[in-house]
Amino acid sequence: MTAILFGSIGTLADTSELQRQSFNEAFAEHDLDWQWDREQYIAMLGTNGGEQRIAQFAGARGAAVDAAAVHATKTAKFHDLLASAVIEPRTGVVDTIRRAKEGGTAGALVTTTSPANVTAILTALGPGVARTDFDVITDATQVDQPKPAADAYVVALAALEQRASSCVAIEDNLGGVAGANAAGIVCVAFPNENTADHDFGSAVVVDQIDLDTLRALLAP
């Protein structure tokens, strides 16, 4: 294994419920009488992209909504919550990053979220998890298509100068796993609290990250 590819900010810290809270606060600010409860939100997480979820939700109700504007407000709310909340790295993340670096294994954060979201989560997690822990970080500005397309992984592999067959990806949602698979990368599913019941197909599902477990996936 030559590189570990963390596939979303949610693989570093479980922010799923903060995300849902941010959506609901944004809806209120835009005078929308929507409240996504946890059951609704879990059902939506099979689709990547918050703006897309807003647009689909509005379309299903015949509502004319500026999804981009609502999502921009949601993002601002999310950043505020990250700045005020106590955010902890997910189990095994810090140790895995440390051991990988010590052993010469490259690391990447391969996300299609905004650069601002990347900065916000790394600020919230610092110094335990820092930007300097990753040799490559992708974001939405670097890809034509978000996950489940393979674009972000293709960009990351090129920047790392690594072959897909020698890397392992870690994802917390179905679209992310599909994106890694589309790029030909072995992927571990590391569900968050709101994707824990999703069916990740043939992906190995773990409840913590461990370097030895990741290495074993590529063992002959």
Question: What are the defining features of this structure?
Answer:
220 residues, alpha/beta, Rossmann fold, DNA polymerase, domain 1, 2 domains, six-stranded parallel β-sheet, 9 helices, 6 strands, 44% helix
Description:
The protein is an alpha/beta fold and 220 residues long. The protein folds into 2 domains: 3-14 and 87-216, HAD superfamily/HAD-like (Rossmann fold, 3-Layer(aba) Sandwich); 16-84, Orthogonal Bundle (DNA polymerase, domain 1). It is 44% helix and 10% strand. It has 9 helices and 6 strands; from the N terminus they run βαααααβαβαβαββα. Strands 3-2-1-4-5-6 form a 6-stranded parallel beta sheet. Helix 8 (174-182) links the parallel strand 4 and strand 5 (186-189). Helix 1 (16-29) packs across helix 4 (67-84), helix 3 crosses helix 4 and helix 4 packs parallel to helix 6 (115-125). The relative contact order is 0.19. The model has no long low-confidence stretch (mean pLDDT 94).
Rg computed from alpha carbons, rounded to a whole number of angstroms = 17 Å
Question: Order of strands across the widest beta sheet?
Answer: 3-2-1-4-5-6
Helix amount, in percent? 40-55%
Order of helices and strands: EHHHHHEHEHEHEEH
Oligomer: single chain
Strand content is 5-15%
Question: Could you report the average pLDDT, rounded to the nearest whole number?
Answer: 94
Distance between the termini: 11 Å
Tell me the number of structural domains.
2
How many DSSP-defined strands? 6
| CATH level-two architecture of the largest domain | 3-Layer(aba) Sandwich
Largest sheet, in brief, is: 6 strands, parallel
The fold-level CATH name of the largest domain is Rossmann fold
CATH class of the largest domain: Alpha Beta
Find the CATH superfamily of the largest domain.
HAD superfamily/HAD-like
Briefly note the structural class of the backbone.
Answer: alpha/beta
